[in-house]
Amino acid sequence: MNDDQEPILICKDLCISYYTRAGEIPAVVDFSLTVKPGETIGIVGESGCGKSTVAMAIMQYMGANGGIKSGSITFKGRDLTTLSEDELRSIRGSEISMIYQEPFASLNPSLKISTQLIEVPLAHENISKDEAYKRSVTMLMDVKLPDPERIMESYPHQLSGGQQQRVVIAMGLLSHPSLLLLDEPTTALDVTVEAGIVKLIGDISKKFGTSQIYISHNLGLILETCDRVFVMYSGEVVEEGTINSLFTWPKHPYTHGLFSCIPLPTADKNVAPLKPIQGQLPLPFERPTGCYFGPRCDHFQQGLCDKEHFKMEHVDGSAPDHRVRCLRYKDIDNTLQIAPEEAKESLEIGRRVLNVDGMKKYYDVKDTSFMAMISGKRVRHVKANEELNFTAHESETVAIVGESGCGKSTFAKVLMGLETGTDGEIRHNGKDISDIEVRDRTTKQIRSLQMVFQNPFDTLNPSHSIGGQISRVIRQFGIETDKQKIFDRVMTLLDTVKLPRDFYFRKPRQLSGGQKQRIGIARAFAGNPSIVIADEPVSALDVSVAAAVTELLMDIQREHKTTLLFISHDLSVVRYLSDRIVVMYLGHILERGSTEEIFAPPYHPYTEALLSAVPIADPEVTKRKIVLEGNLPSAMNPPEGCPFCTRCHRKIGDICENVPPPDQVVVDRHVIKCHIPIEELRKVAPVIRVPEASERLHKKQEGVQT
Amino acid sequence: MILLLLKRIGFMLFTMVVVSIILFLLLETGLTGDPATRVLGNFASDQQKEMWRDQHGYNQPTMVRYAKWLGNFATGNLGTSIRYKGPVKEVLLPRLWNTAILGFWTFAIMIPLSLILGVLSGMKEGSILDRTISVTGILTTSVPEFASAVFFSALFVFGLKWLPGTSSMAGGFEFQQLILPAMVLVVYDFGYVARMTRASMAEVMTSQYIRSAVLKGLPYRQVIIKHALRNALIAPFTVIMLQINWLLSGVIVVEFFFAYKGFGALLLEASLNNDIALLEACAMVAVVVAVSSQTIADIGYTFLNPRIRFS
Q1: CB contact, 8 Å: A65 with chain B?
Q2: Which residues of A touch B211 (CB under 8 A)?
């Protein structure tokens, strides 16, 4: 980055609108941005804030109903808004490239990777096919893909998600563009894969000097990748600044609200509860006059904030490019956010309600290949769960952590009775339920084991009213039979999940994602369950909404003394709300223990890598970087010894490959499955370090008891 | 891949056997009325019927008769037609050939026309070209064949006097006589295939990989031909293969209207005249064509779609 250089991209007073039958919808208002050579800019915001619209406007790919209303986008001295389709074509792909959220959808399913790669240089430069092919192979090596020749001859569906995204990145870099737009490039990927991609993106700007605009909803990722950041809310930038100034001293109440919504890896649910932002994002045509954030802001002042739309202004006493769109930022002391009485009492852990003992689940897969027909091995096992052992107590939150394909959802299915276990036991209140299917279970058993699903958008029946759907559950569980009593019970449940009572008559399509998930929670708690399995309950929701749903879930748990099995891949959320953690990989439990034990050495090497992969939205917290190589092995054909040996950075030798590792007990209920002696593992330095000296961080952690 | 092929062919044979059993039960047994009555007519005496049954082996056990019947079919011995007083084979083959000629020309015009127009209209959804093509497609498809046949006859035969009104080919093959039936078929079927193609193309055009192809800076023509077409043609391919069945037996109306001596017309005559042997042969031919065209469609589909080929 060089301050003297001419900026390569300048967006000035950009207003973008979509034109629909309902009229003009302003998507982005008053957006200004400059990108210098080699600089990485982050744009962060929740869904619907207009961040992707900005990227599409830079690409001049707005669709038929979108248009730039005013302002200019100047790229290397040329205004992109005035260029012809032909001139744009010569810039797209060669000067500005784009990386997309879903790598699989953005690759053509019926063309080989080689075809899709070599056409980029062929379209922009006058080179031969051989040369283009050679350059593509080199580029695949540059994005750290092993065996590039084989990848060139593959079709997209033959590659894993991480590999696909690397191919898309290689495609974007083939013509050495000077600007790269990345639209949520890692959202569809697993955490450890994400860590690899993030590292790669960082290396690119160093190696090729490419400027980047990185769009994400994840503040932690922005911190790890960017130099400067723009926070967007409802179509406008509310705060901008360098990573350091903005992340250390956020000025806008919305920015601050976002930070309060994401748990720090050091925070605890009882000491420093998350503080969700009230209300929800206004629709573009419902925006208030004055400050768009006004209705949700704790510091809203009538007569000042709601008068007229105001401009960004420079933050006094901060870095020169730290600007904020708030009239009251000087009056707000953000350190005084958490009132001490909001700190919650920790729950007393009760008796043991769930005991998983040697539970196994194998799926039989019929092999229809020709070779299998000859050799006679027609049936193969997919070992989805291998020897699961753990316990859960009343009022306890047990998190099951692992990447996709680790078997966590399979376990949930067996527990719910949607599948039956192959071997071993799951004792719920002393009774083995692992081989009773859900239709053979008693109403009482079904009632006491309930689930909150990942995707609230698909779990509600679109043609029935909310009230009808909850009443049905109550009737099915036989809790109440009288019509009036059922109605009363639904009302109580709606109160419990903090939704207005008139939602009884609404249809699911009238609800936002967060509200739907609240209904999902109400449904699960309708029969006072003793165990609730929450399968990634907030991963489909925006940060501010997710925080509210998480808090709600814990409040209800507190009230009902429910055991919560929280399935997640997000370790910062897990750290925040769980008492005990089970780390799974390829069907095995690699480590289990209390939250403190998991987050401090000795670690299992996989836990260590997972911790390192968690993006942390605080510049003062430091992390050791561990990037895992390779892909998750297939569950059909797992390694003979330790399941993690193919990707482990601490592999000690052949023993890892050939001998299944033993369960080593560190202390009571803290178990690590590894060949490395505990003493060795104890010597490993902590992955996440919070500086002792930082007054700000400790204030945040302790609330404001001081 | 080989296994898939074998599986498909096995399934195809299985379907044919099932259909043949149904056919046998319906026409050759007493299930739907006495075959002897059907052949000899209502006024034949019981004695005559019994003699006929004996002569034609109808008193043997059903299983044995089915085996023999199937064996005859397999060896090409299709029996004798009552109506035409001759071997079924000699009646059937020229008719099949005539239908093949009509079908070929209909396809040769209809497929390229509907694919090109469908793709053009799907490329820019909502454009004037798209609306024109879509509306025309709906109009032509919703006019039944007998109506358009009358209309075209009125225009080209009686109005302009360009084309002959019948297509019986009485004086040998004449291409001119083929034009009107083919035209009616093309007009009727074009809209259907074009609309399928349009829907498929429109879906592909909104996909993310088309967006990434455009944002790679590829020329528009290359985006369409290289990236969009191949994916857009997968769905219509199956539909096109289904049209083969329709052309074989679904065009009775057109063949009858123009007195064209085709397969559909033969099927109609056979059933009107209780010509059991001919009817059975026609039905079996129709089944063989239907099942094999679907098998070819399935196999072709895996070639178009690498996700199936390499899974």
Answers
A1: no
A2: 61, 100, 106
Q: Report the run of H or E that residue A447 belongs to, with start and end.
A: helix A443-448
Per-residue pLDDT reduced to its tens digit, A248-259: 888 888 888 888
A100·B208 Cβ contact <8 A: yes
In Å, how far from its chain's centre is CA A301?
A: 34
Dihedrals phi, psi of A4, to nearest 5 degrees: -75, -20
* DSSP β-ladder status, A397-401 and A580-585: parallel
What is the average pLDDT across A117-128? 90
Cβ–Cβ gap A123/B216 under 8 Å:
yes
Task: Work out the number of other CB atoms within 10 angstroms of the CB of residue A411.
Answer: 29
Question: Judging by beta carbons within 10 Å of its beta carbon (0-12, 13-18, 19+), is residue A569 exposed, middle or buried?
Answer: buried
Nearest C-alpha of chain B: how many angstroms from A5? 27
* Residue pLDDT, tens place only, A500-523: 888 888 888 888 788 888 888 888
Residue A640 has, within 13 A of its CA and on its CB side, a CA count of: 5
Global ipTM:
0.77
A466 at B interface, C-beta within 8 A = no
Those residues whose C-beta lies under 8 Å from the C-beta of residue A334, and which sit 6 or more positions away, are: A249, A250, A251, A256
Q: Are A641 and A659 within 8 A, CB to CB?
A: yes
Residue A616 has a pLDDT of: 80
pLDDT tens sequence across B53-73: 887 777 778 788 888 888 888
* Contact residues, chain A, for B214 at CB < 8 Å: 61, 92
- Look at A108 and B213 and tell me if their CB atoms are within 8 Å: yes
Find the helix packing angle between A113-124 and A161-173, rounded to 10°.
10
Residue in A with minimal Cα distance to B302: A110
Residue A665 has pLDDT above 70, yes or no: yes
Distance of residue A370 Cα from the nearest chain B Cα, in angstroms: 7
Interval B145-160 mean pLDDT: 88
Minimal-distance CA residue of chain B relative to A117? B216
Query: For residue B306, which residues of chain A lie inside 8 Å, CB to CB?
Result: 109-110, 155, 157
Mean of the pLDDT values across residues A418-447?
83
Strands A352-366 and A423-428: antiparallel
Of A59, A105, A110, the CB nearest to B305: A110
Distance CA A200, CA A165 (A): 11
Q: Do A93 and B215 touch (CB under 8 A)?
A: yes
Dist. CA A68–CA A54, nearest whole Å: 10
The pLDDT value recorded for residue B7 is: 83
Cross-strand pairs, A34? A10
Q: State which H helix or E strand residue A29 sits in.
A: strand A23-35
Q: Give the other-Cβ count within 10 Å of A667's Cβ.
A: 10
pTM: 0.80
The Cα A499–Cα A518 span in angstroms is 8
Backbone angles phi, psi at A25, to 5 degrees: -115, 110
